[in-house]
Design a protein that fits this description.
five-stranded parallel sheet
Length: about 400
């Protein structure tokens, strides 16, 4: 008798879920969801009217969507032992630390280059199009401190892989990057959950929970999800091909393309979004991040004294860059002053592409208003690679 399941997944998990499922599983119904609003308007008659043993499987990325989906599913009378978090059960087979999940793909390979940075570098710089053997360790909302911590952990655990590095590219996000602290931002919950790094004290601390309480939630709850015997049993029965046909989910880089829509551009023009860190100078954060950039540079030089360091500012969509020019008059001066001070002690190049309209002026290059899509990332990386090789002499290192 076939096992039966009803599936819920964010659209970018479609191939992963469908390619992983067992041949003897019957999919009674499947729902593709993009937002909490989609979840709230789901027609769940297929659950309410189910008969016999029917399992529910879901793969969603954000904790808010997961909580809302579970609330609605359980309200239909489903026994929680028949509900499987596919994504968490899958991730339970890998290290909780993201840098390990990524670096293990390069195990016993000598790397020529590393890419560090934030989400713009994660989706905007294609490691396979860079010179040599390269690993992209960027992640969404990853500030300068966590870039340093990531490199430090790689130095401690993957020294063979990085000891002969020829160059590093650091995605600097924007002119206010030194003003950004992951732990003090609204993105820190998701970052620590996925990165595997514990929360650390900051000054000033502005969270309702203490650092200890947050870390207890991470260690005792969030990082244990998907690991119980019954979850792993269900996962192996329903999705036996998940790792055999791995699509790169373990790296949290979803292999999908999304296109910037005209309505998103119009919405931005009517009501531009301004980051909180663009509106106020956080002096404690700036000093903290400058100190961590110094630590990052010193560690890079310790790993390989002749390493070439490139700081890169990727272009947002031109509509955004044009609007932010007035905001950036102050921040750019601030940023360049810090860069000038760092240059007194360290050798590196700053490559500023924020006015690079060959990319930024074309909507088709973007997945949203600030992040490059697959085609745009390929074009940008080819241009960056060409510059590094021919203008900055990386070809002499290979």
């Amino acid at each position: 008798m076939k096992k039966r399941i009803i599936l819920f997944y964010e659209y970018f998990y479609y191939n992963f879920v469908r390619n992983s499922i067992a041949l003897d599983v019957e999919i009674l119904k499947e729902y593709s969801i993009r937002s909490i609003e989609d979840i709230e308007t789901l027609d769940l008659n297929s659950i309410a009217e189910r008969d016999g043993e029917v399992y529910i499987g879901f793969a969603v990325y954000t904790r808010e969507m997961k909580a809302k989906l579970l609330e609605i599913i359980l309200s239909c009378g489903i026994n929680k032992n028949y509900v499987l978090d596919i994504y968490k059960a899958y991730m339970a087979g890998y290290s909780k630390n993201r840098f390990q999940r990524v670096m293990n793909c390069k195990l016993n390979q000598k790397l020529d280059g590393l890419i560090l940075g934030i989400s713009h570098g994660m989706v905007g710089i294609v490691e396979d199009k860079m010179p040599g053997n390269v690993c992209n360790l960027c992640y969404s909302s990853q500030d300068i401190y966590f870039n340093y911590l990531t490199l430090k952990k790689c130095y401690e655990q993957y020294y063979y892989e990085i000891k002969d590095l020829k160059y590093v590219v650091i995605d600097m996000f924007d002119y206010f990057y030194f003003n950004f602290d992951t732990i003090l931002s609204g993105a820190f919950d998701r970052f620590v959950e996925i990165s595997g790094f514990l929360c650390e004290e900051r000054t000033p601390w502005n969270k309702e929970q203490s650092v200890q309480q947050i870390n207890e939630v991470l260690s005792g709850g969030i990082w244990q999800e998907g690991k119980t015997a019954w979850e792993q049993k269900l996962f192996s029965e329903f999705f036996p091909f998940a790792r055999e046909r791995d699509c790169g989910v373990y790296k949290d880089i979803t292999l999908y393309d999304e296109k910037l829509e005209d309505n998103a551009i119009l919405k931005y023009k009517n009501n531009p979004i301004i980051h909180a860190v663009q509106m106020k100078i956080f002096h404690h954060t700036i000093q903290f991040q400058v100190d961590n950039m110094v630590k990052l540079f010193l560690l890079l030089k310790k790993i390989q004294p002749q390493i070439r360091i490139f700081l890169v500012l990727l272009p947002k969509y031109k509509v955004v860059e044009d609007f932010e020019k007035s905001l950036n008059r102050t921040w750019k001066t601030f940023f360049m002053n810090i860069i000038g001070e760092l240059k007194k002690d360290f050798s590196f190049e700053l490559l500023d592409f924020k006015d690079y309209e060959e990319i930024s002026a074309h909507k088709e290059n973007y997945r949203d208003l600030t992040h490059l899509g697959l085609d745009g990332a390929a074009k940008f990386t080819e241009h960056l690679s060409d510059l590094l090789i021919h203008q900055y002499g990386l070809d002499a290192l290979f």
